[in-house]
Amino acid sequence: MTVFAIYGATGHTGRLVAADLTARGKEVVVSGRDPDALAALGYSRVMPAALDDPEALRALAEAADVIIHCAGPFATTGLPVATAAVEGGCHYVDHAVEVHHVKRLFDSFTEPAQRAGITMLPSVSFYGGLGDLLAGAVARGIPDIDRITVAYNVTNWMMTHGAVETARLLFADTDRIGYEDGEQRYGFVEPRQAIFAFPPPVGPRPMIAPVPFPEAVTVPRHTRTGAVEAQLTSRTFEEEQAFASEQVDAAARAASEFMIAAQVLAPGGPAAGTLTGRDLWSAAALASVEAAVRLTDGGAKSGVASPGEAFDAVDFLTGLAARGAFELRLPATA
């Protein structure tokens, strides 16, 4: 039987991933740094592994067909688990938002992953991963694209401890990675206030632009475009509960509402699509599980890939919509 390992299984996302895999009838191994907390989850297969214990991490990888890595911040946790996946010969999926971690996997792990015969998918999550897939779906069949904007409208986001730490790292980072004039750009970019016209019922919203999400690295890998930018509604971090909700229960955390929009600008006219739903944490968990299941079913090339590069974006998003992750709206040309 195919075995799915979840690293960071005691966290909010890890629990959602484990529950979804179990509901699908999959064999699950839960892992992380706290043996007692892992045992309390009640799963029959438990393999504790500290980040500074490469032998334990490699044993986890050798026992699994795929690892879904849920324990951020990935700027700290990503390298040890990704290294173990390569050494242990199992596929790797993570929830990273940190663009430098994502780029490091592309730069440093592509050849090792190919030699190991595995596929590594960073940023299969809400921010980054779903934006990458939506951009690819909307852009399908459109030539000579000038710009792709991925805009996130998020309300009532209740961040976990890991998400709070990740947000602090992201916005303190002055070494930004962007994509302009058909090439990667590096260096500090002063965020600006912008207005993005979401379709009804959201409408125009003030945005932080750009935000340092992975789309600037991932989208150009599968879609030819002159520029890529991610934006986030300004009010998302202005809401009182965003940074003060580390201890809330799972039901309260599920109350977020979102719309992700991808806008493609090209000489032939604009095109746009949206993902709309509740509970961004659940959407992220469902996305990573879907990716992991598809990897173990075969078909993806070995190496490192973005979600929109590894899979047919329209088919992938349609499948997630059918499972209740969100409502999907795409242009007729997609």
Model description:
- With 334 residues, the protein is of the alpha/beta class.
- Helices cover 38% and strands 23% of the residues.
- The protein contains 12 helices and 15 strands.
- The chain has a 7-stranded mixed sheet, covered by helices on one side.
Describe this protein with a few key phrases:
334 residues, alpha/beta, 7-stranded mixed beta sheet, 6-stranded parallel beta sheet, 12 helices, 38% helix, 23% strand
Helix content: 25-40%
Mean pLDDT: 96
SS element count, helices: 12
- Radius of gyration, taken over Cα atoms and rounded to an integer in Å: 19 Å
Largest sheet: 7 strands, mixed
Span between N and C termini?
36 Å
| Tally of strands | 15
Order of helices and strands: EHEHHEHEHEHEHEEEEHEHEEHEHHE
Spans of at least 5 consecutive residues with low confidence: none
Q: What structural category arises from helix and sheet content?
A: alpha/beta
Shape: globular
Proportion of β residues?
Answer: 15-25%
* Largest sheet: spatial strand order: 9-10-11-6-12-13-15
